[in-house]
Amino acid sequence: MKRYPAILMLVAAGFVPGMLPMSARGDVLTGTNGERFVGTIIEESTNVVFQSEVGGRLTIPFAKIREIQRSAAVEATNPPSASNRQPVTNNTSWEPPGVGTDGSDWVQLKSSEWLRGQLKYIQNKEVEFDSDEMEQQTLKLKDVSQVFTAHRVFTQFADRPPAYGKVVISNDLVMVNGDEPLSLSRDQLIGITPSGGRTGIRDWSGSFNLGLSVQSGNNHQTTVTTQAELARRTPNTTLDFNYLGNYSEANGVENANNNRVNSTYDVRLNKDWFIRLMSLEYYQDPLANIAYRLTADAGAGYYIFDRTGLDWMVSTGPGYQYTRFSTVESGESDNATTPAWVIGSNFKQDITPRLTFIQSWQSIFVKKEAGQYTHHTVSTLEFEIKRHLNLDVSLVWDYLNSPQVKSDGTVPQKNDIYLTVGLGLRF
To answer: What's the pLDDT band for 85 if we cut at 50, 70, 90?
Structure first.
């Protein structure tokens, strides 16, 4: 996961703690929009190349810089020489201009850095923030010292109805300034979204991953793997759409062609439990003799772990499944309907600040004529290259315990296993 410096915002609507002094560590760069970065000045020419402690290397034109604060060591060995350089200051008491009045959200991280922009959501111990300078970032909530919203948002606490109002998160306290002001511990916070249950583009986020492999010479092979996700979040709900497709052709012969579309709708009841009001799956794999398969289920789930850098939730519930087979032997039915029982798991752990392990699996138990038992799992190593760009390595395993015999008498393989490497884009 990403780890970026924070944004300070000291003044919010009607109630805000007093100004907190900050101690600069290293060089400090303040943009004309009020964003502040802490780190090291690498180069000064027509632009300033700045190595942020957490945000990485930034190249910022002087026209976008309000102020540069240099550490004592830098001032002694590399004093500014050009007349257009920004002023040097050691003032440690600083607040972003326009906080609470400029129509922007602000976040302060414990690194003393500041970001200005739009808060997309806070959920599952993560803060999704669209920074003016650094674009969309995923921050760890534990690294955030303060959050200030410019407009009213919906805030969900454990065992309470959603609260609506401007929000200030200051250290361990979450304050909502609405019709009925509310102040509770951060430990009770479940989520924050700008528009609550209303329609809003800022509630949506997603990702797209494409893997392509082409081989020529004695053998000609093409493999294309596509993964996509689109999710809409409110303080206590998540609507999620997923797609996974795999196509492969060797020497003009198709040897893989499957598509899987999933949709789930979860409602968080408290910090531990959630209910899955709806789960739908469409699966198509002609080579496994499945023209298409539809599964619908509902159930309940539990968070085994729900903390920064480690999430693990499990779910289970009853369902129903319909399968249409591509071909069948003479006298056999070309479809199967069956009640089902579904068990699922989603696991996510940060190995390093840029490397994340993600695993999801789903097991479905049905009647023998429908396959008896199916299993689908995706294990992914996600490496953050830069901002929204990831390198993903995924191992996908599909298993069908009792495949349907084809019209020519052949039985499809029980296992499908493939490894994919691709570039992913998050938005």
So the answer is: very low
Q: What pLDDT score was predicted for residue 197?
A: 45
CA dist 303 to 80, 141, 200, 306, 346, Å? 54, 18, 27, 6, 10
Coil/strand/helix, residue 143:
helix
45: number of Cβ within 10 Å: 8
Q: Which amino acid does the sequence have at 30?
A: T
Put simply, whether the predicted model's pTM sits higher than 0.85 gets the answer no
User: Is the per-residue pLDDT at 9 higher than 50?
Assistant: no
Q: Is 373 exposed, middle or buried (0-12, 13-18, 19+ CB in 10 A)?
A: middle
Give Cα separations from 95 to 35, 92, 129, 184, 239 (angstroms): 10, 10, 19, 25, 37
Nearest to 321 by CA among 364, 258, 264: 364
Q: What SS3 string covers 205-228?
A: EEEEEEEEEEECCCCCEEEEEEEE
DSSP-based three-state secondary structure for 152: coil
Q: If you average pLDDT over residues 25-40, what whole number do you get?
A: 81
What was the pLDDT predicted at 77?
A: 37
Contact by Cβ (8 Å): 388, 208: no
- Return the pLDDT at 55: 63
Give the H/E segment covering residue 75.
helix 72-77
Q: Which two tokens stand for residue 211?
A: 């893997």
Q: What per-residue confidence (pLDDT) applies to 72? A: 54
Q: Which two tokens stand for residue 355?
A: 């490397």
Rg (CA), the chain: 26
Those residues whose C-beta lies under 8 Å from the C-beta of residue 100, and which sit 6 or more positions away, are 9, 11, 12, 13, 16, 148, 150
pLDDT at position 84 over 60: no
Cα separation of 373 and 399, whole Å?
8
Q: What is the DSSP string of 219-263?
A: S-EEEEEEEEEEEEEETTEEEEEEEEEEEEEETTEEEEEEEEEEE
List where CATH 2.40.160.40 sits in the chain.
203-426
Residues with Cβ within 8 Å of residue 176, at least 6 apart in sequence: 155, 163, 164, 165, 166, 167, 182, 183
Strand locations in 32-112 (E): 36-44, 47-52, 56-61, 65-69, 105-109
* 203-426: CATH architecture: Beta Barrel (2.40)
**How far apart are alpha carbons 147 and 153 in whole angstroms?**
12
123-167: per-residue pLDDT in tens? 878 888 888 777 677 788 888 888 999 888 889 898 888 888 999
